[in-house]
Automatic annotation (TrEMBL):
Signal peptide: none annotated. Residues 1-110 form the WH1 domain. Residues 114-153 are annotated as: Disordered. The lineage of its organism: Eukaryota, Metazoa, Chordata, Craniata, Vertebrata. GO terms for cellular component: cytoplasm; plasma membrane; postsynaptic density; stereocilium. Keywords: Cell membrane, Cell projection, Coiled coil, Cytoplasm, Hearing, Membrane, Synapse. GO terms for molecular function: G protein-coupled glutamate receptor binding. Residues 123-135 have a biased composition (Polar residues). Its main location: membrane. GO terms for biological process: G protein-coupled glutamate receptor signaling pathway; sensory perception of sound. It is found in: Cell membrane; Cell projection, Stereocilium; Cytoplasm; Postsynaptic density. This is Homer protein homolog 2. Transmembrane segments: none annotated. Belongs to the Homer family.
Length: 343
């Protein structure tokens, strides 16, 4: 029995500055555990958070409380009994939403619990009033007649109800004692928690050192993996280069095979080359003879041209002389004609 945790999360805890009522004052140096507790005996709900040996939140939830989201990761509520305002900063919006939904759920449960408690108180009050009336009626019944028998029966019923109410009071006293014992156990648990904080701090320090060592080891392994990846990349490049060289080698072998096949016909080609060389030498000799003949013909042509020029000069001179002779002959004929005319 006693108080039991029904929801737990982690958040940074703040309280409103009592002097300014505006600024937030951190109640924890880091994120701490914040839990909803349900007290079975009292049928009540509380929000409790402990930082080391210090209780930083002990807020009993009432139906008139309201949890307000002021940002995506921050929420707050006012506690009139503690005369302060608590604020919680979460690492994600999802955690804030879950806490707010649980707050509303617990608030509704607290409202139902209060209504049931009020119903019990009203029932107890009615029973007490009925008991007083019952006592007066008993005095009257000693002097009353048979007509009051029914009223006496009703008074007996009220007495039974009063007895039950007394039993309920005893039960509530037992529940109150149970609540006190629960608070004592909670105090003991808090003391034990405070005693174990140092051990937790030592374990945390050891875990943090181990974490740093593992992180350093992970960095080394990542560096080795990077080197391995670089070597793999180099190997891949070398493999591609080897494949290219093998392809070139196959091409060269193919060319070499072709050359070998061609080398088999080299003797025949050499024989043909010798035959062609002889033909070429003969053609060169014939060409030389032709060039000599051409040169001789050129010389004959030059001499012929010279003789032609000389003949042209002589012919020109002869024609000039001939023209002179013709002119003389014409003059002679004219003279003869003139003589004939005179005679």
């Amino acid at each position: 029995m006693g108080e039991q945790p029904i929801f737990t999360t982690r958040a940074h805890v703040f309280q409103i500055d009592p002097s300014t009522k505006k600024n937030w004052v951190p109640a924890s140096k880091q994120a701490v555990t914040v839990s909803y507790f349900y007290d079975v005996t009292r049928n009540s709900y509380r929000i409790i958070s402990v930082d080391g040996a210090k209780v930083i939140i002990n807020s009993t939830i009432t139906p008139n409380m309201t949890f307000t989201k002021t940002s995506q990761k921050f929420g707050q509520w006012a506690d009139s009994r503690a005369n302060t305002v608590f604020g919680l900063g979460f690492s994600s919006e999802q955690q804030l939403t879950k806490f707010a939904e649980k707050f509303q759920e617990v608030k509704e449960a607290a409202k139902l619990a209060r209504e049931k408690s009020q119903e019990k108180i009203e029932t107890s009050s009615n029973h007490s009033q009925a008991s007083s009336v019952n006592g007066t009626d008993d005095e009257k019944a000693s002097h009353a007649g048979p007509a009051d028998t029914h009223l006496k029966s009703e008074n007996d019923k009220l007495k039974i109800a009063l007895t039950q109410s007394a039993a309920n009071v005893k039960k509530w006293e037992i529940e109150l004692q149970t609540l006190r014992e629960s608070n004592a156990r909670l105090t003991t648990a808090l003391q034990e928690s405070a005693a174990s904080v140092e051990q937790w701090k030592k374990q945390f320090s050891i875990c943090r050192d181990e974490n740093d060592r593992l992180r350093h080891k992970i960095d080394e392994l990542e560096e080795q993996c990077s080197e391995i990846n670089r070597e793999k990349e180099k190997n891949s490049q070398l493999k591609r280069r080897i494949e290219e060289l093998e392809s070139e080698l196959r091409e060269k072998e193919t060319e070499l095979t072709d050359l070998r096949k061609q080398s088999e016909i080299i003797p025949q080609l050499m024989s043909e080359c010798e035959y062609v060389s002889e033909k070429l030498e003969a053609a060169e000799r014939d060409n030389q003879n032709l060039e000599d003949k051409v040169q001789s013909l050129k010389t004959d042509i030059e001499e012929s041209k010279y003789r032609q020029r000389h003949l042209k000069v002589e012919l020109k001179s002869f024609l000039e002389v001939l023209d002179g002779k013709i002119d003389d002959l014409h003059d002679f004929r004219r003279g003869l004609s003139k003589l004939g005319t005179d005679n």
